[in-house]
Amino acid sequence: MTETALRHLETPEELRACLPLMRELRPHLEREEDFIERLARMRQERYRLLAAMHEGEAVALAGYRLQENLVYGRFLYVDDLVVASGRRGDRWGARLLEHLDGVARGSGCVKLVLDTGLSNALAQRFYFRQGLLTSAIRFSKILETPTA
Fold first, then answer.
1. CA 96, CA 104: separation in Å to the nearest integer?
2. CB of 8 within 8 A of CB of 46?
3. In what order do the strands lie in the sheet with 48-54?
4. Based on the number of CB atoms within 10 Å of its own CB, is 25 exposed (0-12), middle (13-18) or buried (19 or more)?
5. Is residue 109 helix, strand or coil?
6. pLDDT tens column, 114-136
């Protein structure tokens, strides 16, 4: 029987173990220490990292947080969503989003929100298939060179 589970990663060891997978989405995350320190800061802002575990290995990750603002009200924001390149097409991303939908609804959220690059057509198709719709364009400006 194959062991499959969704669970939150909490310990520094679990977080370190998921860094190679997170780098598939965020290749700029070079140093392990910077990754762990950044996650610690983000966790103070209620960031959680949910992993799809298959036979003891993280095959997909979803980083998220519950937030509230004047635009949406209470909402769940998905910071990170990545599936291991060799596991795409196995519905891991869909399972994570389904779980986050339940977290959002159970927390009284009115929306689930995420961003994706304008040039990321494959991700956009996936999100449309999952029932997410485009509703905004995000503008940004680099203020200084990032350290990680």
1. 12
2. no
3. 4-8, 48-54, 57-69, 73-83, 111-114
4. middle
5. coil
6. 999 999 999 999 999 999 999 98
Q: What does the CA dihedral 98, 101, 105, 107 come to, rounded to 10 degrees? A: 110
d(CA 110, CA 24): 30
Task: From 21, 125, 10, 29, select the one nearest 83 (Cα to Cα).
Answer: 21
Q: How far apart are CA 77 and CA 62, in angstroms?
A: 10
Helices (H), the chain: 12-17, 19-25, 32-44, 92-106, 121-129
Q: What is the pTM of this model?
A: 0.90
Q: How far apart are CA 77 and CA 3, in angstroms?
A: 28
* Gap between the Cα atoms of 95 and 35, Å rounded: 25
CB atoms within 10 A of CB 9: 20
Q: Is 128 helix (H, G, I), strand (E, B) or coil?
A: helix
Both structure tokens of 14? 């679990």
